[in-house]
Each structure stands twice: as C-alpha cells, then as structure tokens.
C-alpha cells in the first residue's frame, strides 16, 4: 500500500486550478448525461446529488491517476473502475435502468450494465483530453502528466 501512495500522491496533489477544472467539467458532464439518460429513458441516478459522488468524488481522482497514460491504458483501467461503479449502482439500486429501454432491446437486458461500463470507460481518456484543452485555454499553462 505504501508503494501505491508513493506513486499516487504526485498525481493527486496537483494545482488547485486543475482540480477545480476537473470538478467543473465532470460535474457538468454528469448532469448532462443524467439528463440525457432520463430524456431517452435509458437510465438515471436515483438522486441528482449522485452526480457529485460518482463524477467528482469517484471519477475525478481516477482520472487524475490515469492522466498521462496512453489512451488504451486509460480505457482499460477505466473499464475496471466503471465496471465496479455500474455493478454497485444497479446492485444497490442507486441507479435506475428504465425497463425495456432501447439498449435493452439492442443488446438485451443482461448486457445493459456491461454496455454502460464499456461506454462510460471512455470518460477517462476523453475527460483527461478535454480537461487538458480547457485548462490550457483558460490558464495558458500546459498540464503536466
């Protein structure tokens, strides 16, 4: 565990402006995806504030840890993280999948959580790229991996 913290600390203890950028981007992204999921009747959080717990408290630190890795590695590690999150959300019923939604119809309901995890694992490499661009545009600084 000590080796993990030695590796993780420099990745997590970054500039506060970078943390704020990640939190704002992921919070807005989470609100938007929760809204899209409701509008298309695919899935939704049981409570709106789960956007904070999932996107900011869970996904932002993972994104920071994965920052700087190649796209495929961010996706692979992100898939593990999202698999656990999706499994937990539906097992604990803190996430709601609309019955017979179009993803159920396309892939069948037994593959719904897997499909969600496969899709949302893209958040890590895409989110890191997006935050890097936004941070650089606003603060005129390059994000160091």
Fold topology:
Layout: H1 2-12, H2 16-39, E1 43-45, H3 50-66, H4 71-91, E2 95-97, H5 102-107, H6 112-120, H7 123-139
Antiparallel strand pairs: 1-2
Helix pairs in contact: 2-3, 2-7, 3-4, 3-7, 4-6, 4-7
Transmembrane segments: 12-35, 47-66, 75-92, 112-131
Keywords: Membrane, Transmembrane, Transmembrane helix
Give the % helix: over 70%
Largest sheet: 2 strands, antiparallel
How many beta-strand runs?
2
Radius of gyration: 16 Å
**Cα end-to-end separation:** 22 Å
The parts where pLDDT drops under 50 for at least 5 residues are none
Tally the helices: what do you get? 7
Characteristics of this structure?
single chain, 145 residues, mainly alpha, two-stranded antiparallel sheet
């Amino acid at each position: 565990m000590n080796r993990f913290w030695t590796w993780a600390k420099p990745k997590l203890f970054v500039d506060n402006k970078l943390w704020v950028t990640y939190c704002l981007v992921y919070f807005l992204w989470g609100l938007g995806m929760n809204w899209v999921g409701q509008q298309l009747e695919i899935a939704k959080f049981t409570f709106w504030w789960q956007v904070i717990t999932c996107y900011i408290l869970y996904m932002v630190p993972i994104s920071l840890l994965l920052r700087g890795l190649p796209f495929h590695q961010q996706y692979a590690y992100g898939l593990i993280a999202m698999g656990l999150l999706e499994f937990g959300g539906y097992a604990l019923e803190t996430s709601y999948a609309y019955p017979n939604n179009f993803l159920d119809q396309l892939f069948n309901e037994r593959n719904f959580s897997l499909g969600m995890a496969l899709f949302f694992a893209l958040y890590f490499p895409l989110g890191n790229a997006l935050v890097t661009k936004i941070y650089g545009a606003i603060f005129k600084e390059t994000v160091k991996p």
